[in-house]
Automatic annotation (TrEMBL):
PROSITE patterns: IQ (PS50096). This is IQ motif containing with AAA domain 1. Keywords: ATP-binding, Nucleotide-binding. Residues 459-570 form the ATPase AAA-type core domain. One of its GO terms (molecular function) is ATP binding. InterPro entries: ATPase_AAA_core, IQ_motif_EF-hand-BS, N-DRC_Component, P-loop_NTPase. CDD domains: IQCD (cd23767). SUPFAM superfamilies: P-loop containing nucleoside triphosphate hydrolases. It comes from the Eukaryota. Gene3D superfamilies: 1.20.5.190, P-loop containing nucleotide triphosphate hydrolases (3.40.50.300).
Length: 696
């Protein structure tokens, strides 16, 4: 990189370098396949190293895709990006199958590669939301309108209790009370002034100082100036030391900051490019010139399809086996980079927006899709009415705006050491955050990834109350723009009675979820669906219907079933394990996570951290408590009045400890119950494709 390089060329170079790294990685994997390894430890190390390499490529490609302005280049990067995401999920599945655990500790490999744990963080692609922003905004607007109308409609039906008027004597009494209170406040202010005046009169008079002598004044000025100069020298020495240690960049490399374009400016430029009239013009010309021919061809194809409707096709999993070791290999093809873009003379393209010939090919596909809908759409459309009914019944709710990055947790630095000592470490909240990204967000956000990657239809989040299970459900919806269907016990009780009513409810949910995908179907307190002694009258009537619901989901359907529970040991494990393919147990936070949690929550709620507030002490004494209890403690302490007093009365550690003393921690007996449940689940899942995230 040179300071004269334009941002567009820089991000194009990032793309090219990432593609080269990808080609090298694919060649390395082909060579490893030719030399099978019998040592399972070495096999896992190869898998983990490949996983790390793909994550690095993923992070580079995602940055280049988000910052480039050229739409057709971004579309090509998007294709490769989907392939990299899919390969990461494939490697994750192989690692889980090898270690029989969802949590992996590869600190030694990161150390060999000279990488930090933050370099392993899975980024959430920004195009998940940006490419469907208009659709999401329109859907949110419709949802708000339905909710507002329903609230107004139901409030009109409620009987309003009549308000009784006061008597004359009661009104006089209220006025007298208010007036006496006002007079009391005024008298208190008056007496305070008298008290302060008397206190000042009793103080001894201080002689007026004549001021400093010229020599003393000059000495004081010199002290201030010399101190300022020395502080600057010390700061420069500290910066030079950090550069020498490799912990910060040299000053001449700070020109990279030029490339950190304002995100809003980039988004605005991309929006302007997308809205240019060239695309509309090309599309209209294609529709006029080729529309009739396409329509006749589609009619013939649809008629032939009805004649040959009994033809069967291989499922995607079987068809994908012809790609060798990776289902996403066709997406990694570098032909378009080398033959189309890498050696292309683009000096004429000052705007970097599009290539006309390539645009015609893209718009031809869009025209064909639109005409296909017009030709084949001969039945009434009912999704809008079903959507409205589900909202009115409380089965389709509005997800809270929560990003996955808001789920704060630190990396488990002792995980590798404990594994090497034959001790299973307790997973950290950062590990849980990674699994949510891998199993929930990445597949739901991309159609190609969801269709070709290892399919996860159902995910269970288990853990004590307050560890953030519901927050993670809302984060999945926020990051992918997914609809949130609520089939919790409290939501479905008393609705759609009988077997036929239940079938109709699930049919409606499935139809709307598929049509408006991506979608998340959430079942809170899911242990109530699988009780050990079922009465078949309440929420447990879903027990036999959920396997059929999941069976109706295919690879192209971006619908994820997510269950949450803090009492999984109360459920009947046999049907429980049959429904939930992945079980992730969220533990209470360790010391490192507690430290960053306290700091994050206090600052988020307006607090100021000083030397009087010992975060390390808070993290130690709060062992056994959950993040939800931390939030309640901070909110109880940082009231509006306390925030106003912050400048003259800094926060102290004992203020938060006092509130924690009134709370119940996660006791050892409850943790043991989770461990026993996980061991039972692992035994039940032996022989099945799923696995549970376990710790002992």
């Amino acid at each position: 990189f040179t300071p004269t390089m334009s941002p567009e060329n820089h991000f194009r170079k990032m793309w090219t370098d990432a593609q080269k790294d990808l080609d090298i990685q694919l060649q390395r994997e082909r060579e490893e396949l030719l030399q099978p390894e019998q040592d399972l430890v070495k096999v896992f190390r190869m898998l983990a190293t490949s996983y790390i390499k793909y994550v690095q490529i993923f992070r580079t490609l995602e940055t280049a895709h988000d910052q480039l302005l050229h739409q057709q280049k971004r579309a090509l990067i998007r294709q490769v990006l989907d392939g990299v995401i899919g390969r990461i999920l494939e490697l994750k599945k192989e690692m889980v199958d090898l270690e029989k655990s969802e949590f992996h500790y590869i600190g030694n490999i990161l150390e060999d590669l000279k990488l930090l744990p933050v370099d392993m963080e899975i980024p959430i692609p920004r195009y998940f939301i940006k490419e469907q922003l208009e659709v999401l905004q329109q859907r949110e607007k419709i949802l708000d309108q339905i909710l507002l109308f329903w609230i107004c409609y139901t409030s009109d039906l409620l009987e309003i209790e009549p308000v009784e008027a006061m008597t004359f004597e009661e009104a006089i009494k209220v006025i007298q009370v208010a007036e006496r209170a006002r007079q009391g406040r005024c008298r208190a202010v008056y007496m305070k002034r008298i008290y302060l005046a008397e206190k000042r009169a009793k103080q001894p008079k201080v002689e007026i100082e004549t001021g400093l002598s010229p020599d003393d004044a000059a000495t004081r000025i010199q002290k201030v100036w010399r101190g300022c100069v020395q502080r600057k020298k010390t700061e420069n020495l500290r910066e030079e030391e950090m550069v020498f240690l490799g912990m910060s960049l040299p000053p001449h490399l700070n020109a990279m900051s030029i490339l950190q374009m304002d995100a809003e400016q980039v988004n605005a430029l991309q929006g302007e490019i997308q809205e240019r009239d060239d695309e509309i013009y090309v599309k209209n010309k294609l529709r006029e010139a080729e529309g009739l021919g396409i329509k006749e061809t589609l009619r013939d194809q649809i008629g032939q399809c009805f004649i040959e409707c009994r033809t069967y096709f291989l499922p995607p999993a079987a068809a994908g086996k012809t790609n060798g070791f990776c289902n996403f290999l066709p997406l990694f093809c570098s032909f378009w980079i080398t033959a189309v873009w890498q050696n292309r003379d683009e000096r004429w393209d000052f705007l970097q927006d599009h290539d006309p010939e390539l645009m015609k090919e893209e718009k031809r596909e869009e025209v064909e899709k639109e005409i296909r809908v017009q030709v084949s759409n001969n039945w009434p459309w009912t999704i809008d009415s079903l959507y409205e009914e589900l909202v009115e019944e409380g089965l389709l709710i509005k997800a809270k705006t929560v990003n996955l990055s808001d789920y704060v947790g630190e990396y488990s630095y002792l995980g590798t050491t404990l594994r090497q000592a034959d001790r299973e470490p307790v997973p950290s909240l950062a590990d849980v955050r990674q699994l949510i990204a891998l199993y929930g967000i990445l597949p739901l956000g991309s159609e190609i990834v969801h269709e070709k990657a290892p399919l996860v239809k159902a995910l269970l989040l288990a853990g004590p109350a307050g560890v953030g299970k519901k927050m993670l459900v809302h984060a999945i919806c926020t990051e992918t723009g997914a609809n949130l269907f609520n089939l919790s016990a409290s939501s479905i009780t008393g609705k759609y009675p009988g077997k036929s009513g239940l079938q109709m409810m699930l049919h409606m949910v499935l139809k709307v979820a598929k049509q408006l995908q991506p979608s998340v179907v959430w079942i809170g307190d899911t242990e109530k669906i699988f009780p050990k002694a079922a009465s078949k009258m309440g929420p447990e009537r879903l027990e036999k219907m959920l396997p059929k619901f999941l069976k109706a989901l295919r690879a192209p359907d971006r619908v994820l079933l997510v269950g949450t529970t803090n009492r999984p040991f109360n459920a009947n494990l046999k049907p429980f394990c049959k429904v939930y393919q992945k079980i992730i147990v969220i533990p209470r936070p360790d010391y490192a996570s507690r430290f960053v949690l306290w700091k994050h929550i206090i600052l988020q709620n307006g607090g100021v951290i000083t030397n009087l507030l010992n975060i390390s002490c808070l993290a130690k004494v709060s062992d056994g408590f959950t993040p939800g209890q931390f939030i309640r403690a901070v909110q109880a302490v940082l009231t509006k009045l306390r925030l106003l007093q912050m400048s003259r009365k800094p926060l102290r550690t004992d203020e938060f400890i006092g509130f924690l003393a009134t709370q119940d921690p996660v006791y050892r007996e409850e943790e043991e119950a989770f461990k026993v449940m996980l061991r039972a689940v692992n035994c039940k899942k032996r022989g099945h494709s799923g696995s549970a995230g376990c710790f002992t």
